[in-house]
Design goal:
With about 60 residues, the chain is of the alpha+beta class. About 25% of the residues lie in helices and about 5% in strands. The protein is built from two helices and two strands; from the N terminus they run E-E-H-H. Strands 1-2 form a two-stranded antiparallel sheet. It comes from Tanacetum cinerariifolium. This is Reverse transcriptase domain-containing protein.
Length: about 60
């Protein structure tokens, strides 16, 4: 028996076995993401962080 943090008790593995193995050669989503040059460009380029604006001191 497996007891989770929430107190749930289950028998056997908590993760069900996938009905079919995921094959990267057959998976269209994976192939499109890793072989499309347009997507590869965007994944590499990271925009610079926005400049931090310091709050102006309030004059009283």
């Amino acid at each position: 028996a497996i007891t989770t943090r929430s107190g749930l008790v289950t028998e056997g593995p908590t993760v069900p076995n996938p009905s079919k193995p995921v094959n990267p050669e057959e998976d269209e989503c994976v192939k499109e993401t890793y072989t499309d040059p347009n997507h590869a460009e965007y994944n590499i380029k990271v925009p610079p962080p926005p400049p931090v604006q310091k709050p102006k001191p309030s004059i009283q």
